[in-house]
Request: fold
Amino acid sequence: MGLFDFFKKKDTGPDPLTGLTLPNLKIGYLLDFDMKTWQVEASHYYDWGEGDRSWEWQLISHDETIYLERESDDEDAWSVNRKIPVSRLDPAVFDHIRQHQDPPDTIVYEQVTYFLEEMAGGHFFQNGKGPGKELLSWSYQDDSGKKFLSIEQWGDDDFEASVGIPVEEYQFINILPAGTTP
Reply:
């Protein structure tokens, strides 16, 4: 060992704190959003065909569960969504789906009118694994573009609904690895 070897930095392997960005969230990670600390409970993706994918992270705090979604087109678009009981939507929405194979073009929920933006069919990969579960999805947006509503159909009569808002990546801070990561 020479004199200069003494001052060399020891190689301790890869830095565990590099790559802590929103697109790289993994199960167990912690992050702050909206004045709360959240833990990544699950990490899913949707395959819409022809290379079109979107990603979803289930985030939990002590009293709430939200879903952070990322869609990539020319640039990333982020949203935070909260599931709502489908019973809170007008039952006519589901009658319309059963009769016409599609929901109506407008839906009113909690005094907000949402307009149909797009419909897609794809596969859902829970925690990025498995053969993928088929679904149909209808996405709605209000006039301002600041509120979203989506309906997902799993099978003939299994529906889920959620409402959401657009968010920016910078709103999520203090991303830290925690617990075990698969």
Q: What stands out?
A: The longest strand covers residues 112-125.
